Amino acid sequence: MNKEQNAVTHVIAREQIRAITHVDINGEKHLLGQHRDFRRNENLAHFIPESGRLSFAWVRLTDGETLDVHQHPTKSMIIVCSGSVQLTGDEPRQLYEGDIVCVEPFRNHGFTTREGETFHGLSIQFEGKGLYEDEQQARVTFSDALNNLYQVNETLVGRHQENALFQLFSSGRLQKDVQLRQRFVSALYVWSRYFQKMVLARQALSITPALQEEYRRHFMEEVGHDELLRVRYEINDEVYDPILEAASNWFVSQMYQQDEAGKVVVVHLVVESSGHVFGLATSEIFHKPEVEGDYFDVHAEADDDHRSIGQAYLHSLPAEKIQSLLPLCRQAWDMMDLVHERIAAWTLQGASS
3-state class of 267 per DSSP? Predict the structure, then answer.
């Protein structure tokens, strides 16, 4: 750095920092929106000290642009200087001007704007090169959005199998207590009826040709299972639990509120995945070798296939759409856990310990 550079105070406009709009990772081009690393400007590169190696970049997304979910090996700070933007990934939330996001290393995160929305921000790293300072060797790894959704779903399946109802299954009490077993199937019948309403509503409202035939086959395989349960287990008791009713009806309501992608997540990633592990756990308790097509055996077998319905459709969607389904997936599992917990509570109500 010469004396003239030392003596001059430089004011650098954002536009004087060269922007890049895409980065190539493993042969695949990813949109960055607009990324301006401070060190791409000669004056800033001289001014920012190498010791401590802070790295700054102006970032911008506008009018529906999305920075896909990614992670990097260094912590990063993003300052929302103007506008607003949606944080996606592990902890989605809406961000507004003045918000500061501190991202720990290897945390999945991304950003997306709505139509007409613009976000200007600062991206700051505190050690090593900036994330895109070396455009040929960017320090980021972009995640496969659909695989990330599947991984989150499988994690929540594992959590689901630890809920109160699965604990009841593993306790051995249902095998030993006929009265407890009857209370269980009576409470389960409430959920079974709402399940029928859910698939009926989904079938009636489907408008996507690519899914209609899959949905039709699924509907034909599921229709009447509530009656199968009632007849096989001679269910005559009326069960009324307001929380169970509300939680079960939530799934029906989603068929009227969600688009096709949301319905696939609710019905097939969540409900059918729950039904599969539920069927495996209960078929050991209720298995009747002399009865073909028992309710519990059917769900242990069929629901595994039903989980795959709509997956080709999800594969056709852009990454930002898949990312937007993560909160719904988590919410649906919360509601499915609540359904199970209320069934377990009703079953155990008044039972001797």
Answer: helix
| CA gap 130, 133 in Å, rounded | 5
Domain count, the chain: 2
124 and 245 co-located in one domain:
no
Q: Are strands 93-96 and 66-71 parallel, antiparallel or unpaired?
A: unpaired
Within a domain: residue 223? yes
CA atoms within 13 A of residue 161's CA, in its CB half-sphere: 16
Alpha carbons within 13 A on the beta-carbon side of 300: 14
Kindly report, residue by residue over 317-353, the tens digit of the pLDDT.
887 788 889 999 999 999 999 999 999 999 999 665 5
Residue whose tokens read 């009713």: 245
CB atoms within 10 A of CB 324: 19
pLDDT in tens, 175-208: 999 899 999 989 999 999 999 999 999 988 988 8
Q: Name the pLDDT band for 236 (thresholds 50, 70, 90).
A: confident
Please indicate, yes or no, whether residues 96 and 71 belong to a single structural domain of this protein: yes
List the Cα angle 88/92/97 in 5-degree steps.
Answer: 85
In this structure, what CATH number is given to the domain that contains residue 55? 2.60.120.10
Is the separation of the CB atoms in 235 and 229 below 8 Å? yes
Alpha helix ranges (H) inside the chain:
3-7, 42-47, 145-160, 164-171, 173-176, 178-205, 209-222, 225-232, 242-257, 260-264, 272-286, 295-306, 311-315, 319-324, 326-348
Token pair, residue 55, equals: 């790295």
Residue ending a domain, among 119, 142, 165, is 142
Say if residue 163 is in the same domain as residue 275: yes
Statement to judge: residues 123 and 153 lie in one domain: no
Domain that holds residue 150: 145-348
Give me the amino acid identity at 315.
Answer: H
Question: Tokens 């199968």 sit at which residue?
Answer: 228
